[in-house]
Amino acid sequence: MSEEKKDTTPFVKNGNTAIITKTAIPEKPQKSSKAGRGKAFKQVLASFIANIGTVNTGMAFGFSATALPQLKSPDSSIHINDNQASWIASLSAAGTPIGCIVSGYLMDSIGRRRTLIVTEIPLILGWILIATAQNVPMIYVGRLLIGFGSGMVGAPARVYTCEVSQPHLRGMLGALASVGVSTGVLIQYVIGSVTTWNILAGVSAIIPIVSLLGMLLIPETPNFLLQQDKRERAESSLAKLRGSTCDLDEEIQRMIAFKEKNHVEPLKTPKEVLKALLSPSALKPFTILAVYFFIYQWCGVNTITFYAVEVFEASGASLDKYWLTISMGILRVIFTVVGCILCRKCGRRMLTFVSAIGCGSTMIVLSVYMYHVQYWKDNNLQPVYSWIPVASIYVFMISCTLGYLIVPWVMIGEVYPTQVRGIVGGMTTCAAHLSVFSVVKTFPFLKASLNDYGAFGLYGAMSLGGIIFFYFFLPETKGRTLQEIEDYFCGRTKTLKKNSTQTALP
Predict the structure, then answer these.
(1) Dihedral over Cα of 279, 284, 285, 286: its sign
(2) pTM of the model
């Protein structure tokens, strides 16, 4: 065995590192023809159903923005003060990291599909509890359940999508979760503007109910079934997901050969799980994505989202702040869909660089303008060129949506080894939400310490500085099979930049 292959495999068998055998992975057919591909409609439909639940994540974000003003109103059936409002807004975030970890464990224990079904239960209960709330504690518990369920749905939806879709569709379909989140925020803004908070909660319960019923109709992923030594069910699942146009035998044989070559078996003991988590194929991509999420959150995207009205007001924009906020939400949904399509055509690295450069430069422009706004205020001067901050924020949101808001979430389902894809996927979504918390929570402090222009200048510098990290460490996974990506992080192949017709080693 060559030195390159020695001690690089993460796979665990009976508590020991497995020995890589000489079983060959069948060659990919070296042809550019689309013949033999599975039916796109079946993969799109299964992915769409799996991602319905992600709409709830956006709805959890958007609910407090429309509900809190109503609950603070004197004529509300339940009247709240500022302290209670802060708890209602933040309790969903408190439950999210816990849900991420729980869903990661469940994915590798009971499967991707069953985990997505279980995920909908706390969401349904949470929305119904708020809709029928008679007092503030009922709203608290409902928000906690919604946050828990929103945390649970993130990783399994993305892992399921990536495991059931072929490489040419995986990027586009993997971005559906980002579309779902953006859509959820917009739904709450629109419905919340024309109805009461409790009716809004009742309507919101429809989404997880539809998602649960839909998940009953689609199959488990072939990857998980093969890991559980259920070959017949894996073949049946693949047939449902690909249709008659795909060479099912060739694809299933590749999966089986990869499983046998690397002894991919269920991990039964905590020691085996820990050893797999600390292996290069899990630890390397986790580190890359954790840093990615930290950089992308510290570009200021959720500061803009959470404090949109305040930011527009501080920027000196002359237009109505609430109209600007809603239009920004619409823009986010539109370009999330555009990014979803581009993710199929363009590489992960390219879209990431678009975001890093676009977000960094627009935050710097906004920072410079806000510095002048402060000067004009101090000297009782009228602000000029008030279109600049609005344009900066809009271009910022477009740039961020095309890469940052899509690429790392897609890669959660791509870059982790089969054995611990669920657990590490949950850990990654947990790290992502902790990064969200860090930037949103520190914004008032940064604003007080550095002023608005200093805070946004810091965000811009963080995004531009991230270009260095992305250039050296972010791999290109577009068009690669999950097995090829796994081989790369194990060290069995040195690059993912080869022709897609080349396969991982024998």
Answers:
(1) positive
(2) 0.70
